[in-house]
Hints:
Layout: H1 14-35
Amino acid sequence: RIVKERYRCHKLFFDDLVFEIACGLHNFRVSARLTV
Length: 36
């Protein structure tokens, strides 16, 4: 959800960091679901 919506922080490279964290969390959820 945070990737789709606009956020207020306009620091340099902040959007890349948010996207990278969101993708990492999604991959973690998928891999954790497969191991259970």
